[in-house]
Amino acid sequence: MPKTVFVSNVLPLEARDLIPRDIAVDYNATDTPLPRGELIARLRGKDGLICQIITTVDDEVLAEAPTLKVVANVAVGFNNIDVAAARRRGVVVTHTPDVLTETTADFAWALLMGAARRLVEADRFARSDHWTRWQWDLLWGADVHGKTLGIVGFGRIGRAVARRAAGFDMRVLYHDAVRADPALERELRATPTDLAALLGESDFVTLHVNLTPDTQHLINERTLRGMKRSAILVNASRGPVVDEAALARALREGWIAAAGLDVFEEEPRIHPDLLPLANVVLAPHIASASGETRLAMATLAVKNCLAVLAGQPPLTPVP
Ligand code: GLV
């Protein structure tokens, strides 16, 4: 029987071209989420699914797709997929780590710098009629160099963020369930720190954890109140790691100084209390969005799918 793959959203031609001609491809060339019924219908009889984080693959979807052997997510995060249910049903789940690490770390720094130096406010001001002269006290921000950076989640991306901090001569604290190798801690000049101490001491707190029941609302009213009033929070991990309503209050009432967010609890909805605030930089989930990286992610997802369909181990299964 020839194999069949469903590509549930737009994927670059260079990546799709890797799929051999004897594999039939059903390609949904849009970037909008498929209605659940259509997803289920188009998965019928398919051996592989190549999907993005906008596609929810839960137990019910998997139950309707008994021929499926692999779900290849074009993302490093995989909270859109019920991995336990997939395992129970013998479906391999893969993701795209490594290829997006540096690009995502770059963007976490863009959010950090943007929030610290009030770049979005500055841009709006410079375009407006309000800029009439050089002003001594215009748009003062926070220094980044020489400050303390707290990294929550010290996996690939957290470490890439730490590596960049050396150029800013920062003190780096990290918190993770697993302690890093001491040689790596020395190389990155990063000190393992419990969460409360990290939050209390850091000038910048940046989140790089997976979304799990343990990390859901890790940043909440209590933890926000444990941060410095001058602190800046960055989230380029997953929205639900932060309680957005509590963050909006913290930013409005000055429990912390500012934030830079690429992810939200209910994308594409942003909590309405965040929208009027000038001290938060908002981005529409684009941390890995460079041409090179998106192509590398797409290519890796296709290779993962093909490997499983060929009876080989995937390159990057989810852990
Ligand atoms: C994007 O959010 C990803 O997980 O790759």
Topology summary:
Layout: E1 4-7, H1 13-16, E2 24-27, H2 36-43, E3 48-51, H3 59-63, E4 70-73, H4 83-88, E5 92-94, H5 101-116, H6 119-127, E6 148-152, H7 156-165, E7 171-175, H8 182-188, E8 190-192, H9 195-201, E9 204-207, H10 221-225, E10 232-235, H11 244-253, E11 258-261, E12 280-282, H12 291-309
Parallel strand pairs: 1-2, 1-3, 3-4, 4-5, 6-7, 6-9, 7-8, 9-10, 10-11, 11-12
Helix pairs in contact: 5-7
What can you see in these coordinates?
It is a single chain. With 319 residues, the chain is an alpha/beta fold. The protein has two domains: 4-99 and 292-309, NAD(P)-binding Rossmann-like Domain (Rossmann fold), CATH 3.40.50; 101-282, Rossmann fold (3-Layer(aba) Sandwich), CATH 3.40.50. The protein is 33% helix and 15% strand. It has helices at 13-16, 36-43, 59-63, 83-88, 101-116, 119-127, 156-165, 182-188, 195-201, 221-225, 244-253, 291-309; strands spanning 4-7, 24-27, 48-51, 70-73, 92-94, 148-152, 171-175, 190-192, 204-207, 232-235, 258-261, 280-282. It has a seven-stranded parallel sheet with strand order 8-7-6-9-10-11-12, sandwiched between helices. The radius of gyration is 21 Å and the shape is globular. It starts with a strand and ends in a 10-residue tail after the last helix. The mean pLDDT is 98. The chain binds glyoxylic acid. Glyoxylic acid (GLV) binds at residues 53, 75-77, 100, 288.
